[in-house]
Design goal:
This protein has one domain (about 5-125): Alpha-Beta Barrel (TIM Barrel). About 45% of the residues lie in helices and about 10% in strands. It has 8 helices and 4 strands, in the order βαβαβαβααααα. The protein has a 4-stranded parallel sheet, covered by helices on one side. Helix 5 (about 105-120) packs across helix 7. The longest helix is centred in the first third of the chain and has 14 residues, at about 15-30.
C-alpha cells in the first residue's frame, strides 16, 4: 500500500531566514509523523537551500512547477532535469492557482504531466486543493473528468452520461 503524502508549499512567500525557521520546525517535528511521508515544494530560487537543510532527514522536497519542455530557450522555465539535479522528489503540476492566474490549460497540464512521468515522477497527482474554490459551482464529477482529460486518462463514457 502506498504511504500517504503530506506536502506543502509556501508559494511566492518567504525569505532565506523565514524558510530556515520553517524547515527547522519541520525537522524538529518530523519524528512525530509516523503514517505519512512529509514533503515541501519550494520556490525555485530556494530549492538549493531547502535541499541543503533537509538532506539526510526523512523530509523530502520538490518544485512548485516545471516546464512542459525538456530544454531550450524558455526564459524563466524550470526543466525536470534541473529539479532532479537538486534532488527534488516531487513537483506540483496543474495547481489551481497556475490554472487561474496563468491560464494553464488542460493540454498544457497534460504535457507537463507527460514530461514529469518521462522524468520518473508522478507517484501522486493533485486534483484540486479546495473543491469549493476550484469548482466555481461545477459538479465534482465534471471536475474529475476535466482533471482526467488533462492527464490524458481515458474517461469512462458512463461518467459523461450520468
Amino acid at each position: 500500500m502506498r504511504q500517504p503524502l503530506v506536502a506543502g508549499n509556501w508559494k511566492m512567500n518567504g525569505s532565506r531566514e523565514s524558510i530556515k525557521i520553517l524547515l527547522d520546525g519541520l525537522k524538529a517535528g518530523q519524528a512525530e509523523v509516523k503514517v505519512a511521508e512529509i514533503a515541501v515544494c519550494a520556490p525555485a530560487v530556494y530549492i538549493s537551500d531547502t535541499q541543503n537543510q533537509l538532506q539526510g532527514t526523512p523530509v523530502v522536497w520538490g518544485g512548485q512547477d516545471l516546464s512542459a519542455e525538456t530544454s531550450g530557450a524558455y526564459t524563466g522555465e524550470i526543466a525536470a532535469s534541473m529539479l532532479l539535479d537538486f534532488g527534488c522528489k516531487y513537483v506540483i503540476i496543474g495547481h489551481s492557482e497556475r490554472r487561474a492566474y496563468h491560464g494553464e490549460s488542460d493540454e498544457l497540464v497534460a504535457k507537463k504531466y507527460a514530461t514529469a512521468r518521462t522524468a520518473g515522477w508522478c507517484q501522486y497527482s493533485v486534483l484540486v486543493r479546495r473543491w469549493k474554490s476550484a469548482s466555481r459551482g461545477l459538479p465534482k464529477r465534471l471536475l474529475l473528468v476535466n482533471w482526467m482529460r488533462s492527464l490524458n486518462v481515458r474517461v469512462p463514457l458512463r461518467w459523461l452520461m450520468a
